[in-house]
Amino acid sequence: MTIPLAYNEEVADALAEGRPVVALESNVITHGLPYPDNAATALKVQDAVRAGGAVPATVCLEHGRIKAGMTDVDIERFASATGVPKASCRDMAVILAEGRMGALTVAGSVVAAELAGITFFASAGIGGVHRGAERTMDVSADLIQFTRSKVAVVCAGAKSILDLALTLEYLETHGVPVVSYRSADFPAFYCVSSGLRSPRRVDDADVLARSVANHWALGNPGSFLITTPVRAEDAIPGHEVEAAIADAVAAAERNGVRGNAVTKYLMRAVDVATEGRSSRANMSVLVSTAEVGGSLAAAHARYREEIGNRP
Ligand code: PSU
Ligand code: MN
Question: Which residue among 153, 263, 268 has the greatest number of ligand 1 atoms within 8 angstroms of its CB, and so is best to mutate?
Answer without folding.
Answer: 263
